[in-house]
Amino acid sequence: MSTIDYQEKIPNNVNLKEDRTLQRALERWQPSYLDWWQDMGPDGSTNFDVYLRTAVSVDPQGWAQFGHVKMPDYRWGIFLNPAEQDRKIHFGDHLGEAAWQDVPGEYRANLRRIIVTQGDTEPASVEQQRHLGLTAPSQYDLRNLFQVNVEEGRHLWAMVYLLHKYFGKDGREEGEALLERRSGQTDNPRILEAFNEETPDWLSFFMFTYFTDRDGKFQLCALAESSFDPLARTTKFMLTEEAHHMFVGESGISRVIQRTCQAMNELKTDDPAKLRAAGVIDLPTIQRYLNFHFSVTIDLFGADESSNAATFYTTGLKGRFEEGKRTDDHQLRNDSYRVLELRDGQLREKEVPMLNALNEVLRDDYITDSKSGVERWNKVIEKAGIPFRLNVPHKAFHRNIGALKGVKVNPQGQVISDNEWNARNHEWLPSESDRAFVASLMGRVVEPGKFANWIAPPVMGINRQPVNFEYVRFN
Ligand SMILES: [Fe+2]
Ligand SMILES: [Fe+2]
């Protein structure tokens, strides 16, 4: 079951050939997908041989195989984690009942919406990142970008499989629509706001893979708890791929910081102008990028109070992060949670029913997880002996959804006047000139083992290959 059949036109471990109708429907979608990839996938890279990993099995050990592949020939397919015998629903109103192998009629619309919303983010990020290959700081980084891109493509396959298999005609139409929306387009944009922002440079890319792919992790973790078993199994496998995306972000930022600290020590300065003149990214600029990506990403969890979130939980569609590890009653009818609101000009806590606050619960879990990597970045700065620390901003900072939408708050969480916001927001968020400076550093480095001046090499290569391995053959 867990071995993937690569003889088939669509590699899969779901016995696709037993279901001719589904197989035909997916084989009809496949050329549209490839057209989308040609149109919106990584710019100018069709002919490159890229050292990519491909899933050969969904077992935790040895699921990946590495080799040089042209990206349009990547074997995108459908991989589910093996079924858990007699899996039971473990939260919500159906607690204790058998997990669903099919979609219950009454939950069809909500499940479809959840799957479409998740599915939409996958091609969106490929579209956001499509020009980055032209300015990669090294072959190693270029290869990582492409790995992330092909796997986001595969995540789209994962969601489209569910839509085709379980949602009939509506599902097939949604599958087409997923290839028609475009990140940042005004008339047919991607569903969620953060996925319509540009990823214009590599500092943004690393922040995106650290922060926004981590949102992906938390959403997938919540869906991996779902009572709808096929959704749980497919998201569990997606999570193993997601881990690499976050690694790319965390190690990427860490290497940027390392290089900056090295220049600070060599030049004995913390003056951003001098550091910029030396071609590295000053730490305050890194902080502003962090503030931007963190705040835009935490909006993705939705409104702090949400009756939809309550419905998704009580009906068993979407659990909490690590639902299975929690020791409460998994129904939460008698529980409350604290959310923030603006009252009398101050941020104040208010107690609301936990079920309505589940977006906030997931956001808070996310924030805790995000902070740990930021602490690891701070260790790099500390080790260099530099008295500067990066911080995640207060969760009310620069928000655009829920009760905190538009509230003017500084990164420390103090409510400020519009005037102060207007006068100071360039200290907290990347300004046009910050972005222009970062853009000015972006030049393509193609020689194996060479790295752009603004980023340190990684400690290790991919799959135990040397750092100067030929990760991409340009042909
Ligand atoms: Fe993804
Ligand atoms: Fe991802």
Characterization of this structure:
The protein is built from 12 helices and 5 strands. The chain has 475 residues and is mainly α. It has a 3-stranded antiparallel sheet. Strands 3-4 form a two-stranded antiparallel ribbon. It starts with 19 loop residues before the first helix and ends with a strand. The relative contact order is 0.12. The model has no long low-confidence stretch (mean pLDDT 96). Bound molecules: fe (ii) ion (2 copies). The site of one fe (ii) ion (FE2) has 5 residues, from helix 5 and helix 6. The site of one fe (ii) ion has 5 residues, from helix 5 and helix 6. Keywords: Oxidoreductase. This is Benzoyl-CoA 2,3-epoxidase subunit BoxB.
Topology:
Blueprint: H1 20-40, E1 49-55, E2 64-70, H2 108-128, H3 139-166, H4 168-180, H5 202-223, H6 229-267, H7 272-277, H8 283-298, H9 307-314, E3 336-343, E4 346-353, H10 358-383, H11 418-428, H12 432-441, E5 472-473
Helix pairs in contact: 1-3, 1-4, 2-3, 2-4, 3-4, 3-6, 5-6, 5-8, 5-10, 6-10
The structure holds fe (ii) ion (2 copies).
Largest sheet: 3 strands, antiparallel
Share of β-strand residues: 5-15%
Low-confidence stretches: none
N-to-C series of helices and strands: HEEHHHHHHHHEEHHHE
How far is the N terminus from the C terminus?
A: 38 Å
The count of β-strands is: 5
What name does CATH use for the topology? Ribonucleotide Reductase, subunit A
The coarse silhouette is globular
At the fourth CATH level, what is the homologous superfamily? Ribonucleotide Reductase, subunit A
Strand order of the largest sheet: 2-1-5
SS-derived structural category: mainly alpha
The ligands found in this model are: fe (ii) ion
Number of domains: 1
Number of helices: 12
CATH class wording: Mainly Alpha
Q: Over the alpha carbons, how many angstroms does the gyration radius reach?
A: 23 Å
At CATH's second level, what is the architecture?
Orthogonal Bundle
Give the fraction of residues assigned to helices.
40-55%
Overall mean confidence score, pLDDT: 96
Keywords: Oxidoreductase
Protein name: Benzoyl-CoA 2,3-epoxidase subunit BoxB
GO molecular function: oxidoreductase activity
Organism: Candidatus Thiothrix phosphatis
